[in-house]
């Protein structure tokens, strides 16, 4: 079992690495891993059962054409005790409802600036790793 939380970021845009770098700066008490597709995310989840948080960008679901099958990923046994969050470039009530229906733990508008991203990562990590009690890793 890892001593630091493992966080998987599923982000297809060209800014994935810079977002990952910002996230690491905002919350360096974690091991961050980034993949560009849902297929790679599924492989990571099969190989590494210790992810403590999964962040998925809605644009990946559109690009992968995996919107119809993401619920099986979110509800997979490997993620049974793992919060899975969906980020979207705009806040959309219908997508938010769909996200919760599909099994996501939370739906967030995706930050557009570095300070917004830093604030969200700090708040998100504070909530999921300090305030909220998630079951221990299996």
Characterise the protein shown here.
With 138 residues, the chain is an alpha/beta fold. 44% of the residues lie in helices and 19% in strands. It contains 6 helices and 5 strands; from the N terminus they run βαβαβααβαβα. The protein has a 5-stranded parallel beta sheet, sandwiched between helices. Helix 5 links the parallel strand 4 and strand 5. Helix 1 packs across helix 6. It starts with 5 loop residues before the first strand and ends in a 7-residue tail after the last helix.
Outline of the structure:
This protein is α/β, with parallel strands linked by helices and 138 residues long. 44% of the residues lie in helices and 19% in strands.
List keywords for this structure.
138 residues, alpha/beta, five-stranded parallel beta sheet, 44% helix, 19% strand
Secondary structure layout plus pairing:
Elements: E1 6-10, H1 16-26, E2 31-35, H2 38-47, E3 51-57, H3 58-64, H4 70-74, E4 84-88, H5 93-102, E5 106-109, H6 114-131
Parallel strand pairs: 1-2, 1-3, 3-4, 4-5
Helix pairs in contact: 1-6
């Amino acid at each position: 079992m890892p001593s630091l939380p493992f966080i998987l970021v599923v982000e297809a845009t060209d800014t994935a690495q810079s977002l990952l770098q910002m996230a690491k700066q905002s919350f360096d008490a974690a091991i961050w891993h980034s993949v560009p597709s849902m297929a790679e995310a599924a492989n990571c989840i099969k190989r590494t059962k210790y992810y403590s948080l999964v962040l998925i960008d809605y644009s990946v679901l559109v690009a992968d054409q995996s919107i119809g099958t993401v619920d099986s990923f979110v509800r997979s046994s490997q993620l049974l005790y793992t919060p899975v969050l969906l980020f979207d470039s705009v806040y959309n009530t219908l997508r938010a409802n769909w996200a919760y229906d599909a099994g996501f733990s939370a739906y967030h508008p995706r930050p557009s600036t570095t300070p917004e991203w830093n604030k969200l990562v700090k708040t998100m990590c504070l909530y999921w790793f300090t305030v909220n009690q998630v079951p221990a890793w299996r």
